[in-house]
Amino acid sequence: MNFQGKLTKSTGRRVSVAPMMDWTDRHCRYFHRLISRDTWLYTEMVTTGALLFGDVARHLTFTAEEAPVALQLGGSEPNDLARAAKLGEQWGYDEINLNCGCPSERVQRGAFGACLMNEPQLVADCVKAMRDAVTVPVTVKHRIGVDAVEDYSFVRDFVGTVAQAGCDVFVVHARNAILKGLSPKENREIPPLKYEYAYRLKHDFPSLEIIINGGIKTLDEVEAHLQHVDGVMLGREAYHNPYVLADVDTRFYGAAGPAKTREQIESELIEYCAAELARGTFLGAIMRHALGLHRGVAGARGWRRVLSDSKRLAAADLSIFDEARSHLRESSEIID
């Protein structure tokens, strides 16, 4: 059925795919866009230094087919963030998102990411500087607490302070960030999920757009969360099991017509691969993001094995897809 969210002010971010380092590059986003036309997409986090002192084109180039897409920035200096946000707007991004949720030590050394939650006024200053520099929305992605701080009042006061600077969209990863002792992977799994904190934020700040993130795997779960908040952000499930996005458009955006089949998506992906090969792109740089397309289908393991063979991928021969598909016709193979 089509779900018409009672709380959502804008359908744009009703369902989104999280910014994920080393994963949500332009090839990944193009692939996800082949599956869903309406899901809101995010870049990997890009630091202000990478834009102000590095190769801007390498970090910001994307195709119109990927839109709508948001640029996530990492930084903590208001003027630098304003300049980087302006670059993002000039390159055509639909939103600028500030990372206040990453707990990695590398990010901590730069004094941004989740540790910024301990300095809400600084985050407010950063948001104001970016909002003064651009006309596209400026949003914040954050955790619900840092280290041993478990009280709801911490995230409530953080959101309240940043909202006063004009931010009206908050993406809430509903776990604490443990800055010492846990790896980024463990930070995605060990701190308990507290979805009720995101629900309370929506209750306490009804005019804000609250998007929930963390551990969500199915569209039924998405629908359940949308009874309480404005949007749902999928993370690693959308990467490892990308076909979960296939019914998003009809179910949550009112799109007409059936979802694309996996075969249709693969056919369009091959066309994209051909165009990128002509530009000198390594085929494996694209296919590493698509290996979960046939997850759950008989023969998927063989399909993945062929399309992850680095030697075959280096040959840049698209007939590799024919061999890969032959495994999908082996109905006797165990479904994996």
* β-strand amount: 5-15%
H and E order? EHEHHEHEHHEEHEEHHEHEHHHHHHH
Shape: globular
What summary fits the major beta sheet? 8 strands, parallel
* Broad CATH class of the largest domain: Alpha Beta
Please state the CA-atom Rg, rounded to the nearest Å: 20 Å
CATH architecture of the largest domain: Alpha-Beta Barrel
Mean of all residue-level pLDDT scores = 93
Helix content: 40-55%
Strand arrangement across the biggest beta sheet: 1-10-9-7-5-4-3-2
Distance between the termini: 28 Å
Structural class: alpha/beta
| Structure annotation, total helices | 17
Secondary structure: number of strands = 10
Oligomer: single chain
The CATH homologous superfamily of the largest domain is named: Aldolase class I
Molecular structure report:
There is one protein chain. By secondary structure, the protein is an alpha/beta fold. It has two domains: 15-252, Aldolase class I (TIM Barrel); 262-328. Helix content is 42%, strand content 13%. It contains 17 helices and ten strands. It has helices spanning 26-35, 48-53, 56-60, 78-90, 105-109, 120-133, 152-163, 184-187, 195-204, 219-225, 236-240, 248-252, 262-278, 283-287, 300-307, 310-314, 320-328, and strands at residues 15-17, 41-47, 69-74, 95-100, 138-142, 145-146, 169-173, 176-177, 209-213, 231-234. The strands form two sheets. Strands 1-10-9-7-5-4-3-2 form an eight-stranded parallel beta sheet. A two-stranded parallel sheet has the order 6-8. Strand 9, helix 10 and strand 10 form a beta-alpha-beta unit. Helix 4 (78-90) runs parallel beside helix 6 (120-133). The longest helix has 17 residues, at 262-278. The model is unreliable at 1-9 and 331-335 (pLDDT under 50).
